[in-house]
Amino acid sequence: MKDKISDFQKTKEFLVCVDSDGCAMDTMEVKHRKAFGPQAVNVWNLHHINDHFLEVWNDINLYTQTRGINRFKGVVQTFAALEAEGIDMPDISSFKKWTETTKELSNPALKSEIEKTNDEQLKLALEWSHAVNKTIEEMSGEDKPFEGAKEGLQAAIEVANVAIVSSANGAAVLDEWTRHELSVHVDVMLGQEAGTKAYCIEQMKKFGFDNTHVLMVGDAPGDLDAADKNGVFYYPILVGEEKFSWDRFRTESLGKFIDGSFGGDYQQQLIDEFNANLSK
Q1: Fewer beta carbons within 10 angstroms: which end of the chain, N or C?
Q2: What 8-state DSSP symbol labels residue 268?
Q3: What whole-number distance in Å separates Cα of residue 236 and Cα of residue 221?
């Protein structure tokens, strides 16, 4: 499978970019509840506030306007939220600074910074991220595509080039999409190692796609933001209404995207639905 932007070859006039976790793959809930949150408790020794930490972690990463946030920024926001409640949290100030200044929020970028600084906070963050990836690998039987996603992707690849644009670990995305036979409906697979979602869309546009010929399909505000930054369309997969969302994409929205009637009132209606679907 092609996993670099430079591997891509344009064969259609339209481009559909698709997020993975929580959008095409029903993986966000299980990953956060069994890997991300619990491993943070283990690595930062937060067992004394385990239940409350996990509650705040899941709220930030799954159910509010920060749904789908990068894993490292998720740690920073969760720690900040708990500190705001008056809870004494481990010092992650140098890790926080790295998340605000690095050009790439990924394990390789974090490892490179550790080699330069030997910073203990960064080492803990990388230990956590590796533990998360290992736990996710061991959960491989618990992931599945959302109902309707495969059919939606099949319809999209008939009329457009299709790119996975995900902030998840690229190896995990490749494994999941291959095992569930979704990768055959994709032209290129871009995980976190390829850069931010906004960057990936920007680079994909350089193959000659007009803004009105590019659509980002996602489930999180970060997906909408990546579309907005590039001036392209956004189609939301609504939390808790994933089958409805994929069925509507296949039977209605994809056609509007291709025939030029997606913009304006229709796009705004979709965005309003998306914002109302998230609790904050």
Answers
A1: C
A2: H
A3: 9
The pLDDT value recorded for residue 43 is 98
Q: What is the signed CA dihedral for 142, 147, 152, 155, rounded to 10 degrees?
A: 100
- Report which DSSP code applies to 212: G
What's the pTM value of the predicted model, to 2 decimals? 0.82
What torsion, rounded to 10 degrees, do the Cα atoms 206, 212, 216, 221 define? 110
Alpha helix locations (H) across the chain?
Answer: 28-31, 37-43, 50-58, 71-84, 93-101, 107-117, 120-138, 149-159, 170-179, 197-205, 221-230, 242-248, 254-259, 265-277
* Two tokens, residue 133: 């990836």
Average confidence score pLDDT of the chain: 95
> For residue 25, how many C-alpha atoms fall within 13 Å in the half-sphere facing its CB?
29
Q: How do the domains of the chain map onto residue ranges?
A: 5-26+145-277, 28-140
* Cα separation, 62 vs 69, whole angstroms: 9
- Long-range own/partner contacts, residues 45-50 (CB < 8 A, 24 or more apart): 45/90, 46/90, 49/82, 49/87
The SS3 assignment for 91 reads coil
Residue-wise pLDDT tens digits, 216-257: 999 999 999 999 999 999 999 999 999 999 999 999 999 999
Cβ pair 147, 246 in contact under 8 A: yes
pLDDT tens column, 83-115 = 999 999 999 999 999 999 998 888 999 999 999
* pLDDT tens-digit readout, 197-218: 999 999 999 999 999 999 999 9
Look-up of token digits 């609504």: 238
Domain 5-26+145-277: which CATH number of 3.40.50.1000, 3.40.190.10, 1.10.443.10, 2.70.40.10:
3.40.50.1000
